[in-house]
Design a protein that fits this description.
Number of strands: 2
Strand content: under 5%
Helix content: over 70%
Structural class: mainly alpha
Radius of gyration: 22 Å
Mean pLDDT: 83
Order of helices and strands: HEEHHHH
Strand order of the largest sheet: 1-2
């Protein structure tokens, strides 16, 4: 049998090659971040320096890319998966993107707690399709606990219209 008789076989070789090439790209990207972090310094006077976050992000990117590289190198040829496996995947994708843009647009005016609560409520209830009680509880608890943690770390978050 030739590749032409099984349309999925030729495409899966392409997918395997794509995984390998993209993982090499992301490993290189992670290396640039890690090296840049080293140049800025990892530790200054016993506390994390300005290069510590880029260095850690670079190492994580390299590690995850290495996993994709190894999987792409050893996996067997399989038919390619559908880009949108569920019938409402495109709707969920668009709603997620609109919600993320809305979060960024309203964060300063509504404040961290309100915007985070609304963002999580939309994501959990409408996109994740959880029951409203679970969505409300999770969203409120996460927004308030996140605010308390950031406040304890002395991170200045937007207060918004409710706390001005």
């Amino acid at each position: 049998m030739t590749v032409g008789e099984h349309p999925g076989i030729g495409e899966s070789k392409f997918m395997k090659k794509r995984d390998i090439v993209s993982s090499i790209f992301w490993m290189s990207f992670g290396a640039v971040f890690a090296i840049g972090g080293l140049h800025y310094g990892l530790v200054r006077q016993g506390i994390p320096g300005p290069g510590s976050v880029p260095f850690i992000v670079g190492l994580i990117t390299i590690g995850l890319s290495l996993v994709v590289f190894v999987q792409g190198s050893i996996k067997k040829s399989t038919p390619p998966a559908k880009f949108f496996p569920q019938k409402d995947s495109l709707r969920k994708l668009v709603l997620t993107l609109v919600t993320i843009v809305g979060y960024g647009a309203f964060l300063k005016s509504l404040g961290f707690v309100v915007t985070t609560f609304l963002f999580l409520l939309i994501v959990v209830a409408l996109i994740g399709r959880e029951k409203w009680f679970i969505a409300l509880s999770f969203s409120l608890l996460t927004a308030v606990l996140s605010y308390l943690i950031f406040n304890a770390l002395q991170v200045d978050l937007p207060k918004g219209i409710l706390w001005n």
